[in-house]
Amino acid sequence: MFSQWQLRAAFARRLSDMYGREVPAYTTLVDVSREVNEEVLRARGADAERLGSIGRVTAERHGAIRVGTPEELSQVARVFGALGMHPVGFYDLREAAASAVPVVSTAFRPVDGEELARNPFRVFTSMLTPADPRFFDPELRSRLENFLAGRELFPPELLALADRAEAAGELSDTDAERFLHLAVQAFELSPEPVDKAWYETLEKVSAVAADIGGVRSTHINHLTPRVLDIDALYRRMTERGIEMIDAIQGPPRWRGPDVLLRQTSFRALAESRAMRTPDGEVISGALRVRFGEVEARGIALTRQGRARYDALLARVDELAALDPQADRVDVARALWTAELPDTEHGLAAQGLAHFTYHVVPGRPTDGSRPPAGLDALLDQGWVRAEPIVYEDFLPRSAAGIFQSNLSDEGSRNNDRTGIAYDSAWLSGAIGREVLDPFDLYEEQQNRSLAQVTRELALDGLPG
Fold this sequence. Notes:
Pfam families: HGLS
GO molecular function: dioxygenase activity
CATH architecture of the largest domain: Roll
EC number: 1.13.11.93
Number of helices: 18
Family: Belongs to the 2-oxoadipate dioxygenase/decarboxylase family.
Strand content: 15-25%
Number of domains: 3
Mean pLDDT: 91
InterPro entries: HGLS, YdcJ_bac-like
């Protein structure tokens, strides 16, 4: 029998193999990531594995897909539910980008610590928003919704196997093989000719809209390996002649601990696609929609820490606007240095980042009682803190990656009022609760504090 985590790991491997065949530059990205990780491990030793074992980091991937309707998103949720992956977080990319990115998103991933350690595969999943009048007028909306209603992304057999796997928590070898074949096939690039006129109509609004609603299938948009030094990878890919986007998205490199998520990618490549013209002729064309992304993950910030991060980003924007010649990375680095603690202990003490806490074996040695506060427990060596890895995404960074790979900014009519979407709406649309990532990190941290309290016989949680 194949358990859910084994299905997840096998699916991630097969998807990676398939995408490498379709986009050879992705294989180069994986190879360079592995080289950089091995070098960092040699240079930093155990410290390099502070945010995950090298085995986990090397195997780690996140994928990205795009769908058109709540029904398609609900079906995707069933496929990923078979793999033990849950919708976590709500991301509104419409508000996070200056260009036209008419999607809202969530990420499917494992949520249990043991499941994440076994295989932390995630899929950032975006859904088109045809009802938003800033992007689609009534006529185009009607055409688009009719087109989307007439396609089938996931065959009934795949969905039936997915439901069985989710309900039972496993599949037989035969059913697992069939499920994996159908699931990978669903995300392959289709050879079916693209309706050239329809695709170009949507492309005027947004290349993202065309990629979702201009074809009769979906496909893996990118797969993302994890790297321990994203700056070194960026330089090395450039040296190999691969064109990277202009900047690394997310926090700057600085002297303190890595936090949240840093991402970059090589630019979307022109891929040959069959196109059907209005007179029915099939011609050879090219589309630029898929790219190779890479990420470096840091420590999960608390709600307070995330508020500090967002405020710093806004301040960087203000300062950059006042001095367009200034280097944004230098501006950000200076602000980070001034406003954030540059040690894990400092982040923990100020309640800015999440950690799990563990009693140090062998204490006490002199019969003394442990102190009452968490800071004192850490300072006196009763307890050690281990950082919790940030498993999620940043809407501004995701939009920045999307935006950097668009050939033009599309069109958005800001005189119209947008349609409101939120996590509750998305939960109802897909019939599953979209989990709050902050709650997940807080629960993980609080469980560890409760364990410390029990082991040291303290009165209540240390704090």
